[in-house]
Amino acid sequence: MLWPAVASLRARRCGGGCRELLAEVAIREARAAADREREAHPRVQQERLRLAREFHDAVAHPMAAVNVQTGVPVAAFDQRPDAARGVGSGTGIQPGRPA
Length: 99
Known about the structure:
Oligomer: single chain
Largest sheet: none
Strand content: under 5%
Structural class: mainly alpha
Number of helices: 3
Number of strands: 0
Helix content: over 70%
Radius of gyration: 34 Å
């Protein structure tokens, strides 16, 4: 950043009074930078949470559907093994239809 070089040149021209003023400006600039960083942290956390939710929605929900769909043949085999042989091929018990 160019700020330290400019502050140094101004301090030499102004004498002692300007040095105090420039030191105060530097302190305020450091505080402002710390405040900006502190304010950015919650926004970063919110974005991470949003991405995690989006990832969950994109991956976990379809996996749950696959889990439910794979449970249909297992349940069918337990209840009616003869009819369950065609599950998944379109010829046996169809989910949502009475057996």
